[in-house]
């Protein structure tokens, strides 16, 4: 159940680089500061098969293999976020995929190191959020 008719859900992944650098608490403080609630959380290490399936949309891209290896290189934290306009609000907080291009105060600017090790992932549309949430969380 959502907490209001306008509440939306999105998937957040705190990636292996950010977990290794112990940025999770600071990232979650920023998420809550923009009015999003963390309603579920799970820490896990992806298998290669899981990473390949999750990022299957990128399988023709040159960075696919490297991205999948990186995403299996250590624990991640997957979180279900909820709030008004959650997909867009969280993407704005994350910033550009490339930390070098991300605006000041965004998560990727503050905590990302490269376009691959960019600290966080977020769903890019409400439709994809539904699919990505179902990938990690039972209904
Ligand atoms: P994410 O939001 O997890 O979605 C797909 C990921 O692919 C993206 O963040 C980046 O980490 C990665 N990615 C996108 N473009 C590139 C690129 N040009 N080189 C390497 N990795 C990339």
Output the keywords:
alpha+beta, 139 residues, binds adenosine-3',5'-cyclic-monophosphate, Alpha-Beta Plaits
The best one-word shape is globular
Largest sheet: 4 strands, antiparallel
What is the count of DSSP helices, taking H or I runs of 4+ residues?
Answer: 7
Residue fraction in strands:
15-25%
**Number of E-state strands:** 4
CATH class: Alpha Beta
Cα-atom radius of gyration: 14 Å
Our count of domains comes out at 1
Biggest sheet, strands in spatial order? 2-3-1-4
Helix content: 25-40%
The name CATH uses for the topology is Alpha-Beta Plaits
> What is the helix/strand order?
EHHEHHEHHEH
Structure overview:
By secondary structure, the chain is of the alpha+beta class. The protein has one domain: Alpha-Beta Plaits, CATH 3.30.70.141. 40% of the residues lie in helices and 20% in strands. The chain contains 7 helices and 4 strands; from the N terminus they run E-H-H-E-H-H-E-H-H-E-H. The protein has helices spanning 16-20, 24-33, 48-54, 64-71, 86-94, 107-111, 126-136; strands spanning 7-14, 37-44, 76-84, 120-122. The longest helix is centred in the last third of the chain and has 11 residues, at 126-136. The protein is globular, with a radius of gyration of 14 Å. The N and C termini lie close together (11 Å). The chain binds adenosine-3',5'-cyclic-monophosphate. Residues 58, 63, 67, 97, 115-116, 118, 121 line the site of adenosine-3',5'-cyclic-monophosphate.
């Amino acid at each position: 159940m959502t907490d209001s008719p306008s509440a939306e859900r999105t998937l957040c992944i705190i990636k292996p680089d950010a977990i290794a650098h112990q940025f999770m608490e600071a990232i979650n403080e920023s998420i809550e500061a923009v009015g999003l609630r963390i309603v579920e959380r799970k820490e896990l290490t992806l298998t290669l098969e899981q990473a390949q399936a999750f990022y299957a949309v990128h399988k023709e891209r040159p960075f696919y293999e490297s991205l999948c290896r990186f995403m299996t290189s250590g624990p991640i934290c997957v979180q279900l976020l909820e709030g008004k306009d959650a997909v867009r609000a969280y993407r704005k907080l994350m910033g550009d995929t490339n930390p070098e291009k991300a605006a000041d105060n965004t998560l990727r600017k503050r905590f990302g190191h490269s376009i691959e090790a960019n600290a966080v992932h977020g769903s890019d549309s409400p439709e994809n959020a539904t699919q990505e949430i179902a990938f990690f969380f039972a209904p």
